[in-house]
Amino acid sequence: MEILWVLMAVVMIGAVLGPYLLRRRGGIRQVHPGAPDAADPANYGFALQEELDIRMPGPDADLLEVLDLVQRTQDWRAASQLLAGTEVHGEQRWQRVQAFAGAASLELQRRPGGVSDTPGGQWLRVWRAEAPKDAGGAAVHAEFLVQQAWRSATAGTDEFRIILEEAKEACSQAALLSPGDPIPYIVELSIARGLAYQRTEFEQLWLKILDRAPAHMGAHLAALHYWCEKWHGTREEAYAFAEAAAARAPKGSLLSALPLFAVYEHLPEVNLVRGFYQSEVVTKAIEGAQFAVHSARPDDPMLAHVRHLLVFFLVRCERWGEAMNQIIHVDGHVGALPWTLSPDPAADYAVYRALAVAGYEANGGSPATLPH
Questions:
Q1: CA–CA separation, 261 vs 238, rounded Å?
Q2: Mind listing the pLDDT tens digit for each residue in 316-370?
Q3: Residue 333 — φ and ψ, nearest 5°?
Q4: Would you say 82 and 96 are in contact if contact means Cβ atoms under 8 Å apart?
Q5: Sign of CA dihedral 237, 278, 49, 366
């Protein structure tokens, strides 16, 4: 019996790791990083693993400058000014709200405070106390509470529910301060997932977002989670939601990439089907995402999110050249799915990048042949 279990384990490990250890075409060989035949991402000008920025999916120099200032001085005013100057209905404001809330949450996690120590994220508390009618501060506070619930409590516990109920009230206050702003309702989408809103309640919330920002990619990604099989929907409902959004996507929108995110959310934990990543559903979703990337504005804040997920799928599909074409646009930043779900996002991304480089070179590619 023990021999049978060992054989089964060997088969499963081989099915999972086999595609990475031996390729059908090009024959990628695993060698020591210092060996002469080792593919070196540095030859392409890619960032060292320790230099990869895990905070954001792509560059936002203004945000980084303000974040550094706020955390260094503990003065919230620069954050308030940046949000006030960021377009209300755009993707960038949502990303910046998430970034400020995440920074405060991580500060608190690292420095919870005590008798003689000020807790981390104190600048956000001061912001809310000194400027209670600041819509940006209210939105950041609501998102901070949501991140605290998911980061510090266990889903389904009383503590988790209490924090999310407080976050829900904070969303209501933020919405009153900025009636046309979709962000308080986008924040509430995570609350709806955590508190298991009934379908009718969730759909009413979703309609409020569609009224304010019908093509908001960040909002659609947050809503997709609710419809996923692991939360309150099914695989079919998640796919239907994503495909409907892609079908009505306006010209230049990244919503055509939403089905790829739906596929990612329903990936099998262990894939024993060799052709899964060449299947019609995966291929079609990749094509939709590539179309979205080619059609989107180069400065779309959500573009990097789609490119990062494409890197993951294109490497899994052994489409090395296409993967490399995405990597050259996002390298340096790894604050996006799927890397952020890893305990070490930079290391996870670096593995996929190395596989892409190795596969590209095994099929005749080189730094000279890669377009920039």
A1: 10
A2: 999 999 999 999 999 999 999 999 999 999 999 999 999 999 999 999 989 988 8
A3: -130, 135
A4: yes
A5: negative
pLDDT of residue 269: 72
3-state SS string for 273-311: CCCHHHCHHHHHHHHHHHHHHHHCCCCCCCHHHHHHHHH
Q: Mark the ranges of the chain whose per-residue pLDDT is less than 50.
A: 1-28, 33, 36
Q: What is the pLDDT of residue 176?
A: 97
Beta carbons within 8 Å of 263's beta carbon, 6+ residues apart: 281, 282, 285, 313
Decide if 335 contacts 54 (C-beta within 8 A): yes
Return the H-helix or E-strand segment holding 213. Answer: none
Joined tokens for residue 243: 């495909």
Helix (H, G, I), strand (E, B) or coil at 83: helix
Distance CA 54, CA 218 (A): 18
Provide the 10 A C-beta neighbour count for residue 122. Answer: 16
Helix (H) or strand (E) holding 269: none
Residue reference for tokens 């959004």: 245
pLDDT of res. 324:
97
Size of the chain in residues = 372
Instruction: Give alpha helix (H) positions in the chain.
Output: 2-21, 61-73, 77-84, 91-110, 122-130, 135-152, 158-177, 183-195, 199-212, 217-227, 235-247, 258-265, 280-295, 303-316, 320-330, 345-362
Ramachandran sector of residue 242 (left: φ over 0; alpha: ψ -120 to 50; beta: rest): alpha
Q: What is the pLDDT of residue 195?
A: 97
Q: If phi over 0 gives left and psi between -120 and 50 gives alpha, with beta otherwise, what is residue 45?
A: left
| Other Cβ atoms within 10 Å of 201 Cβ, number | 12
pTM of the model: 0.87
